[in-house]
Specification:
Elements: H1 6-24, E1 36-41, H2 47-58, E2 62-66, H3 68-71, H4 79-86, E3 92-96, H5 100-109, E4 114-118, H6 124-138, E5 145-149, H7 154-166, E6 169-173, H8 182-192, E7 198-201, H9 204-208, E8 213-216, H10 228-235, H11 242-247, E9 253-256, H12 268-271, H13 278-297
Helix pairs in contact: 1-6, 1-7, 1-13, 2-13, 4-5, 6-7, 6-13, 7-8
Amino acid sequence: MADLSAEELSAILATAAQLKAETQQRKPHHLLEGQTLALVFEKPSLRTRLSFDVGMFQLGGRAMYLAPQEVGLGKRETISDVARVISRMCDVIVARVFSHASLVELAQYSSVPVVNGLSDFEHPCQALADLLTIQERFGHIAGLKMAYIGDGNNMAHSLMLGAALSGLNITVISPTGYEPNEEVVSQARQLAGGKSTIKAVHNLETGVEGADIIYTDVWASMGQEEEAAERRQIFKPYQVNERVVGLAKPDALVLHCLPAHRGDEITEGVLESPQSWVFQQAENRLHAQKGLLVHLLG
């Protein structure tokens, strides 16, 4: 996320909003005609694969999905070889990987842009869609307060960095031992330059108070299935339920990057409430990523 400047982030969101309006008007925009995107996935996906595939089609290009068994990233072939082969045939690579180090190595050896479609350290494409959703809901981002409740994971990292670049105040509220990476917190504060506040706390009540946006994510991500039962007990006091939503502003927006485990990190009632824009948020993966692709290739 920090590879973008504040100006680039603002431009991508503006392009995304414009492309979304044109899509709703059935107005074609083949800005990337003849260009090809390679989807290199180690993890299964609904939103990431669908949004990039449909988005590239709507932009006049083509997306090619490369399944784990076809590539064998770092197993069947070295990552450096994969990067050099794909980048000689395609214009951009979107990688969804287990280890962030794999993504870094792909980018090191690729001659075309490499987009982080998700790693264990960040999920920046989701954060772009989240910021677009917030902008749609409130008309602006800067000065608002987000309370992120849950694991200080890849999603929390990207949101903190995105908040710093956009002037959004963010408080990450996690149980002890599950805080966001300290280096990311420090980097976000440095990027913010005093224009927004970046906090990591443990107290749910004080963290949520006065929030414009409440955000949560699953308690156990892919690859952490063995920890799921233990995490469920640790994170139970951090569930986003009706009581927690009541601590925020009356018109607070509720977001979740999906998939959701209803009854765990968020209740059914909150997820399906009028304050929840979870499915608008999911749709905005398409538009935000189109904005990003145009920024990289247009």
